Amino acid sequence: MDLPIEDERPRYQLAADVIREEITTGKLKPGDKLSTNAEYERRFGIANMTVRNAIGILRKEGWVYSVQGKGTFVRQVPPAAPGGTADSQVSDEEANSHTAEYLELSERITTLEDQVSSLVALLHQALPELLNKQK
């Protein structure tokens, strides 16, 4: 299923909607591993960060969980439906606020990870020269 072209919402929300629908309709079952980010990038024609944001929304909503080095999987117990316990009800405004905060933090983390990777690469380049100067 492609992302709806006529929908003007952000692409990460559209991708999250498509994946969520696959879970609720049973195309993806509890315990199933989601496609890789690269597969979703190709399938939806979106950037890696957009895929990460979509998966982040689903994780926050309780639809999926991630295991480092293994992937992202559909939860065994879906999140409480609207009208569930009082604890599970969140206003749209609060949900949007938390989603915006999550996305901002996610972007900051990605930026920091990129910067750390660049610094590590520079260190690996400079290390032999620094060691030779000490001799």
Which descriptors apply to this entry?
Arc Repressor Mutant, subunit A; single chain; 2 strands; two-stranded antiparallel ribbon; mainly alpha; 135 residues; elongated
Note down, in words, how this protein is organized.
Helix content is 59%, strand content 6%. With 135 residues, the protein is mainly alpha-helical. It folds into two domains: 1-80, Arc Repressor Mutant, subunit A (Orthogonal Bundle); 89-135. It has a two-stranded antiparallel sheet. Helix 3 (48-61) packs across helix 4 (92-134). The radius of gyration is 19 Å and the shape is elongated. The protein starts with 10 loop residues before the first helix and ends with a helix. Mean pLDDT is 82; it is low at 83-90.
Mind telling me which CATH architecture of the largest domain this is?
Answer: Orthogonal Bundle
Question: What is the mean predicted local confidence, pLDDT?
Answer: 82
Number of separate strands: 2
Instruction: Please identify the structural class as seen in this structure.
Output: mainly alpha
Oligomer designation: single chain
- The proportion of residues forming helix, as a percent range, comes to 55-70%
Task: Give the end-to-end Cα distance, rounded to a whole number of Å.
Answer: 61 Å
CATH superfamily of the largest domain: Winged helix-like DNA-binding domain superfamily/Winged helix DNA-binding domain
CATH topology term of the largest domain:
Arc Repressor Mutant, subunit A
- SSE pattern, N- to C-terminal: HHHEEH
Major beta-sheet overview? 2 strands, antiparallel
